[in-house]
Design brief:
Layout (H helix, E strand, L loop, with lengths): L3 H6 L9 H23 L6 E14 L5 E13 L5 E8 L4 E8 L7 E3 L4 E10 L2 H6 L4 E7 L2 E7 L7 H12 L1
Antiparallel strand pairs: 1-2, 2-6, 3-5, 3-7, 4-6, 7-8
């Protein structure tokens, strides 16, 4: 038989699940939820995508008689976030293309604020420096964005290669 002194010393909750363990799971779930909402809102990382709006190609000669291949591509940049995004610059990262100019829709200039779930239309004039390299690589559209904490760069996501059709037709024009 166990004496009463031993029973008093023993913890009656021994072997039972503590309430504090449930609290940890609840805190972890709340942290995951807050992280997901922050990501979807675009508060930390801008969420941009773009689609093709059309394009044209031209081949001309400069003052020295060299061929100059240029393509003009219309793009629609979409703010996929829940918060507005301010775009301060646009560029491309490519070994075969050089950005010559960017024209915004209407009479606007950078910086341009894009409200949530809306579009900004722009036209890029790209010089083709190397046809083979331009057609073989995936060219990201790089967007500089001003956030509440400072400036950052992000790649606008696209489901399809946006430059290949115009560059291919320009390179075919150059071959003839």
């Amino acid at each position: 038989m166990i004496s009463d002194e031993v029973w008093v010393r023993l913890d009656p909750r021994t072997g039972m699940v503590r309430r504090f363990a449930y609290g940890r799971w609840v805190l972890a779930a709340i942290a995951v939820l807050v992280a997901g909402v922050t990501w979807m809102s675009g508060a930390i990382v801008p969420r941009l995508s773009h689609g093709l709006g059309g394009g044209s190609a031209s081949v001309s000669q400069d003052e020295a008689g060299r061929r100059r291949i240029e393509v003009e591509i219309g793009l629609e940049v979409v703010n996929e976030a829940w918060l507005p995004t301010t775009v301060t610059a646009v560029g491309v990262r490519s070994a075969g293309l050089a950005l010559r100019s960017v024209t915004l829709d209407g009479s606007g200039a950078f910086p341009r604020s894009i409200p949530p779930r809306t579009r900004m239309t722009l036209a890029l004039v790209l010089g083709v420096t190397d046809c083979r390299a331009a057609l073989s690589e995936d060219v990201p559209l790089v967007v500089e964005v001003e956030q509440w904490w400072g400036r950052t760069t992000a790649e606008a996501q696209s489901e399809e290669p946006w430059h290949t059709l115009s560059v291919e037709s320009a390179c075919r024009l150059n071959a003839s």
